[in-house]
Amino acid sequence: MHYTLHQLQVFLKVAQLKSITKAAEELHMTQPAVSIQIKNLQDQFDIPLTEVVGRQLYVTDFGKEIVEMAERIINEVYAINYKTMAYKGHLSGKLKISSVSTGKYIIPYFLSGFIKKQEGIELLLDVTNKSKVINSLENNEVDFALVSVLPEKLQIEKVDLMPNKLYVVGNMETKFKKGLYDKKIFDELPMIFREEGSGTRVVMEKFIARNKLPIHKKMELTSNEAVKQAVLAGLGYSIMPIIGIKNELLNKDLQIVNIKDFPIKTTWHLIWLKNKKHSPLAEAYLKYIKSEKEKIIKEKFEWFEKY
Fold this sequence. Notes:
Blueprint: H1 5-17, H2 20-27, H3 31-42, E1 50-53, E2 56-59, H4 61-87, E3 93-100, H5 112-117, E4 121-128, H6 130-138, E5 144-147, E6 156-171, E7 190-194, H7 199-211, E8 216-221, H8 224-232, E9 238-241, H9 246-250, E10 254-256, E11 264-273, H10 280-300
Parallel strand pairs: 3-4, 3-5, 7-8
Antiparallel strand pairs: 1-2, 5-11, 6-9, 6-10, 6-11
Helix pairs in contact: 1-2, 1-3, 1-4, 2-3
């Protein structure tokens, strides 16, 4: 057999996207060029790698086995390249991180110093909801994930980054008296929820269930920013991470409603699969985080301590 690394890379992209057209776009190749590479790879096997049903391309069971082996081969080739660069004193390659949506308010600060020192690296940062973050981690598609709620069914290792605090917040239309409100006040507050699968939603629901709160769910929105805008517009109240509303609090656009047993406290964790073989780049980033996190917290998040 004489298949090439390029053929395997093209096949992996086609298998991932289930489309020659989309694969061509992502690989910056023409459709005929992609088709030729797939044909040249297929010619070396007696069993089909793909099949077309209707207009949809599917990977056969045999093709899926080739995908798994091709991924391992390509990863080993990348590892050779990374190690070669490391021995020369340079780091290169891609650092892949998936973060829950509210993590976007902190992860840039834990990346900027490292990225600035390593000009030869590329950062792939995916900001999405908790369910998708855990899926990408489970599928070994990323080096690290940033979460505030640890996955229950995955064996992971972690570094604790910093605290996460969630408060009940509303806009400034209603004037709340100073002092601490009883949790019965929830009977008067129409609440805005994040969508199913959100880490904030998980924390919120556990707190509600544990305290048997009389919550009136008014609406459900699919991002922290959407929730914030709805609260600003006076559509209701929500339980939100304070890390995402710093400017709104300083500008007095939002207010914290002081209620007994708040804030809800969790922790931001940088996690990865247990026994994962990190690339030299990922190893270097982990070392950076462990040595620099306290300095980053002090310089960038000192305001956080007064809440």
